[in-house]
Amino acid sequence: MKKIILAFALAGFAAAPALAQAAAFSAADANADGMVTMEEGNAAGNSWTEEQFKAADTDGNGSLSEAEYNAATGQ
What is the pTM of this model? Predict the structure, then answer.
């Protein structure tokens, strides 16, 4: 029984970073459209320049997906 409890505890700790990433992205995505604009990102506490944002926007669509946002913020 102790091994099962330990396994669940470790699984919870392993999932914590992924949950934190999702929470950070959701907090930045002010209009909940699944993308973060430069304005939304900077309002969430980032201080991106135009060049930094364009570099993070790897597909060039003018906004960041969750993967692009996490890469840009080091999440």
Answer: 0.71
